[in-house]
Amino acid sequence: MTADHRLLDMLVCPVCKGPLTLNRDAQFRPHELVCAADRLAFPVRDGIPVMLENEARALPAEE
C-alpha cells in the first residue's frame, strides 16, 4: 500500500463524510479528490489535498 492509498483511506468528503476517489493528471500526479455523492472535486496543490468546500470544483452531470 503506497502513501497515496493510506492517505486516501483516511480522507473523507468534508461535506458528506463519504469516500473520495483520486484523479491523476497526464503525468500521473495526484490532481484532485472526487466525491461522487456530492459531485465535488477537491484540488491537490503541491501534493497537499485542499479539503475546503469553497475551494472544490462542482462536477458537471456528465463527469
Describe it.
The chain has 63 residues and is of the alpha+beta class. It has a single domain, classed as N-terminal domain of TfIIb (Single Sheet), CATH 2.20.25.10. Helix content is 13%, strand content 32%. A hairpin with a 4-residue loop joins strand 2 and strand 3 (40-45). The protein is globular, with a radius of gyration of 11 Å. The N and C termini lie far apart (28 Å).
Helix content percent band: 10-25%
DSSP E strands, number: 5
Largest sheet: 5 strands, antiparallel
CATH architecture: Single Sheet
Average pLDDT metric: 88
Rg over alpha carbons: 11 Å
From N to C, what is the helix and strand string? Answer: HEEEEE
Uncertain runs are none
Structural category: alpha+beta
Q: Give the terminus-to-terminus CA distance.
A: 28 Å
Count of helical regions: 1
Q: How many domains make up the coordinates?
A: 1
Beta-strand residue percentage: 25-35%
Q: Determine the CATH topology.
A: N-terminal domain of TfIIb
CATH class: Mainly Beta
Principal-axis shape: globular
Family: Belongs to the UPF0434 family.
Protein name: UPF0434 protein GCM10009107_39460
InterPro entries: Trm112-like
Task: Write a brief caption for the model.
By secondary structure, the protein is an alpha+beta fold.
List the keywords:
63 residues; alpha+beta; N-terminal domain of TfIIb; five-stranded antiparallel β-sheet; globular; Trm112-like; UPF0434 protein GCM10009107_39460
SSE order and pairing:
Blueprint: H1 3-10, E1 21-24, E2 30-35, E3 40-45, E4 48-49, E5 57-58
Antiparallel strand pairs: 1-2, 2-3, 3-4, 3-5
